[in-house]
Amino acid sequence: MMSPSLRRLLAVMRKEFTQLRRDRATFGMMIMIPIMQLVLFGFAINTDPKNLPTAILLHDRGAMARSVISSLKHTSYFKIDHEVQSDREGQKLLQEGHTQFVITVPENFERDLIRGMSPQILLETDATDPTASSGALAALQGVLDKWRENEMTGALYKKQSPPPFGFTVHKLYNPEGFSRYNIVPGMMGIVLTMTGVMMTALALTREKERGTMENLLSMPVSPFEVMAGKIAPYVIIGYIQSALIVIAAKLLFDVPILGSLWLLSALLIIFLICNLALGFTISTAAQNQTQAMQLSFAPFLPSVLLSGFMFPFKGMPEWAQTMGNFLPATYFIRITRGILLKGADFCELWPHIWPMALFMLFITIVAMKLYKKTMD
After folding, report:
1. Are 206 and 76 found together in one domain?
2. Which among 80, 210, 311, 340 has the fewest CB atoms less than 10 Å away?
3. pLDDT at position 189, please?
4. 174 by DSSP, 3-state: which?
């Protein structure tokens, strides 16, 4: 026979399960967040990235030069997807972030190799993210040994004193390989994503809970005016947060600031509006502040893991990169690192600016339509 205490305990349990069943947002987050974490950490996160975009510049197109390039491809670290015609073209690809490496084979490479002069192949890498290139650089000695074993045979081997050739590595934008140069500029995008989305979502949902939303809806204001008025204070707060991060980056972490802070300030408004409008959109779906906070984690977790902030973007699977390309944080982190570490200008950053601006336009329209629906 069941004791009274146990019956009361089971009654409370049934009540709690009933509440969970009715609160679909909370129940969904309890199920989806662990699944999302499992998929992202299990498949998308890669601390040893391979198939990284690589450009080659061949001043010598002989058979041996081609053989060395082929050996580099076989390591699976280098994905040769560009062949440039000049040093300037290769530097432009690195500056704009389209490629991770530029490999330059010098003139008369094959002739010097046969003569035993140990020619040097130049390998330039974008070292703003040291993790992205560390595995590839560690594999260079293996490439040299394997190539010598396969190619330097017979009479040619006798003429050649080791090593047959070498790699001269230039780590651009972060020659010391400091991880803080990569993390600290990226933190601006992550902090603004977290505070912008969450704070705006909570602010609008708080209006509903306190009953002041009805007063706001009764006022003769348009959805755009309401949204602009609600997010304007958070724009100012976002600029204050960004200023503090830049000051800390310079004074505490000694991060170089090579580009224009005025350009960064101008582009910052686009990113802030993206996050604040997204928070505004979430607030229209949330019934209370708890739901608003839970829903805010939906864009925040991918922004941390799929934007290139913690892990090399080019090292993720194609599907993860596709998801990351829909996140404004992905582009803003590239913009921040480009300005601070590379001294990039507006034209060089344009490939990252227009997708972020497009997202801003889209999410602003969605937020206004959903708010107008709420008013009706």
Report:
1. no
2. 210
3. 92
4. coil
Q: What is the pLDDT of residue 270?
A: 95
For 124, the 3-state DSSP assignment is strand
pTM to 2 decimal places: 0.83
Choose one of 148, 172, 196: the last residue of a domain.
172
**Residues 70, 80: Cα–Cα separation, whole Å:** 9
Domain match, 146 and 195 both: no
Name 4's Cβ contacts closer than 8 Å, sequence gap at least 6.
Answer: none
Domain of residue 289, residue span: 180-375
- Mean pLDDT over residues 259-282, rounded? 92
Say which residue the tokens 């969904």 belong to: 28
Residue 213 CA to residue 40 CA, distance in Å, equals: 38
Same domain, 269 and 362: yes
Of 137, 172, 207, the position where a domain reaches its end is 172
- What strands lie across the sheet with 78-83, from one edge to the other? 78-83, 52-58, 101-105, 120-126, 166-172
Q: Are residues 191 and 129 in the same domain?
A: no
* Together in a domain, 236 and 256: yes
Which carries the bigger pLDDT value, residue 170 or residue 224?
170
What confidence tens digit (pLDDT) does each residue in 303-361 have? 888 898 888 888 888 888 888 999 999 999 999 999 999 999 999 999 999 999 999 99
Map residue 79 onto helix, strand or coil: strand
Strand partners, 120: 166
Interior/surface letters 248-257, b for 16+ CB within 10 angstroms, e for the rest:
ebeeeeebee
Listed in sequence order, the residues at least 6 apart from 123 whose beta carbon sits closer than 8 Å to its beta carbon are 101, 102, 103, 104, 137, 140, 167, 168, 169, 170
pLDDT of 142 over the 60 cut: yes
Dmax over CA atoms of the chain, in Å, equals 96
Within a domain: 296 = yes
Are the CB atoms for 40 and 302 separated by under 8 Å? yes
**Domain count along the chain:** 2
358 with 317, same domain?
A: yes
Q: How confident is the model at residue 153 (pLDDT cuts 50, 70, 90)?
A: low
How many percent of the chain have pLDDT more than 90? 33
